[in-house]
Design a protein that fits this description.
CATH topology of the largest domain: Dihydrodipicolinate Reductase, domain 2
Number of strands: 18
Number of domains: 2
Radius of gyration: 20 Å
CATH class of the largest domain: Alpha Beta
CATH superfamily of the largest domain: Dihydrodipicolinate Reductase, domain 2
Shape: globular
Order of helices and strands: EHEHEEHEHEHEHEEEEHEHEEHEEHEHHE
CATH architecture of the largest domain: 2-Layer Sandwich
Strand content: 25-35%
Amino acid sequence: MKKKVLILGAGRQGNIIAESLYKSGYIIEVWDINKKSLEKLPSGIKKRKRDFRKFKDNFPLFNLMIDALPAFLGMEAMQLSIEKKISVISISFTEENPLMLNKKAKKNGVLVIPDAGLAPGLGSLLSGFGYSILNGADTLIIKVGGIPLHPIPPFNYEITWSPEDLIDEYTRVARIKRNSKIVKVPALSDTKTESIGEYKNLESFLTDGLRTILYTLPIKNMEERTIRYQGHSNLINTLKKLGLFENTPVLIDKKCKIKPRKFTAKILSHLKSTSRDLVIFEIIVKNGKKKLKFSLIEKGKKDKTAMSRTTGYPAVAASSMFLDGLIEERGVVPLEVLGKNQDFTYEFLKRLKALGITVRIEKNY
């Protein structure tokens, strides 16, 4: 009997996940409030214009739910799946720590894999994998960024995802680890010049993407850095200093108030991708003199962005492994925990490669 999968969200990532799992033979149903997004899905996929929050009392049965919703809905979607006893794999960022749901998820016998996109997601899996291979680690550095193939003025950038979520990334305090202690630092701080592969004119800065790794991997020093073209962080910090990311309404005249943040998000939405994009991804795991480096450079294709593919396909790999019975754990189980099982990670990477995403591994030990 074919297994049924519900996907919440028909945006770029939800579309890619739905199409891939449908081609693998699963029965796919997608819910979204945007009819135009649903219409972009391949024929054969069941499409429903629905707000999942309005179906809490009469929820159909599925073998798996995949949350590809905007960040502000992620926690609510995971809570609903646990309540309905449906395992869930989520690519939505949540401000709340998803580990708080572990006790109830275990009690209800469901699996919850949070942050199952690129970073967090694939980056988390490889962090746990590296930790396992090196028999521990003292340093973890995750570098990741989605950028255009070439710098595009005025910000040397194009947006391939939600402008609101992008502003969140640039304003949320970044949590890193120093000497085994969690330290909070401003996002966009500690900017460094980077050269990765053939791309020499890059920079990186601290952002809040370590997520559950802060609590699940006992690594002394760890940080996540976002990659952009050089000069981007100075331009964005100027917007921050001008107050354009603030939520407090500003009185324009006697009849008009606007929230600077919403106004800025609307303006930034005009920078949405019109050219091929590029994802650059590098993870360094160290244990003393031993070192592992995982890297991925992925260019967008004519019909699919690199960001949507590298974010959606890790969720596809995790979903197919769950549906194939290869994940027996229940409760909230982040990918870094699963990644410590080396056989699991090799299978995960094999499935990613079949989807066209290949991670390069360099060993120095």
